[in-house]
Amino acid sequence: MATKKENRASAKLLKTEPVQPEGFKWVQLAKLTYEDAEGKERQWEMSMRSTRKGDVDGVAVVCRLLKKGEKPKTVLVSQFRPPANAYVLEVPAGLVDEGETAEQAAIRELKEETGFTATRVTHVSPIVLSDPGVSGDTMQYVTVEVDLDAEENLNPKANPEEGEHIDIHIVEIDSLLSVLQDPTQVVQDRPKVVVDARLFGLALSML
């Protein structure tokens, strides 16, 4: 059903003024001037990545682990995230390198972070925004299947980048939402654990 909208003008961005704090490598700040739907000029503040190489910043990998005779599982990762001052339970994810497609980035990140080799890509989302209230970051969900019976996945070994300390968690897809209600079921012996909103949204979509 179409949503009824008021007969009014569309808001529009008038000006973007980038601000690059000294010593910042990954993030750039900006002050925005925009005109709202009533024609009033307003200000906004945002962050954006300074590392984007193409149309999209990063990918999030939705993984289905398949093994004959067993229920489908998924692989999650957890790591300490300084902005949250907590360990965060997430899907495998990462930035898209220059010249990469979203599919290639997803396969690479999955291999690096978990050791699993994707058997096939089953879906790629359009480019979506991660947190549009404060950031211009963009991402794509890439859904992959992993054949756990394949030789390359019998003894997976992660190869994270320097400085990445990632724990891997295998969860039955049927139990995912229940696990996320209390992530300490899988992320144990950590002082504080929270769930990435993107992961929780995926779990809700499976209801």
Automatic annotation (TrEMBL):
<dbReference type="GO" id="GO:0047631">
    <property type="term" value="F:ADP-ribose diphosphatase activity"/>
</dbReference>
<dbReference type="Pfam" id="PF00293">
    <property type="entry name" value="NUDIX"/>
</dbReference>
<dbReference type="InterPro" id="IPR020084">
    <property type="entry name" value="NUDIX_hydrolase_CS"/>
</dbReference>
<dbReference type="GO" id="GO:0006753">
    <property type="term" value="P:nucleoside phosphate metabolic process"/>
</dbReference>
<dbReference type="GO" id="GO:0019693">
    <property type="term" value="P:ribose phosphate metabolic process"/>
</dbReference>
<comment type="similarity">
    <text>Belongs to the Nudix hydrolase family.</text>
</comment>
<protein>
    <submittedName>
        <fullName>ADP-sugar pyrophosphatase</fullName>
    </submittedName>
</protein>
<dbReference type="InterPro" id="IPR000086">
    <property type="entry name" value="NUDIX_hydrolase_dom"/>
</dbReference>
<keyword id="KW-0378">Hydrolase</keyword>
<dbReference type="InterPro" id="IPR020476">
    <property type="entry name" value="Nudix_hydrolase"/>
</dbReference>
<feature type="domain" description="Nudix hydrolase">
    <location>
        <begin position="56"/>
        <end position="193"/>
    </location>
</feature>
<dbReference type="GO" id="GO:0005634">
    <property type="term" value="C:nucleus"/>
</dbReference>
<dbReference type="InterPro" id="IPR015797">
    <property type="entry name" value="NUDIX_hydrolase-like_dom_sf"/>
</dbReference>
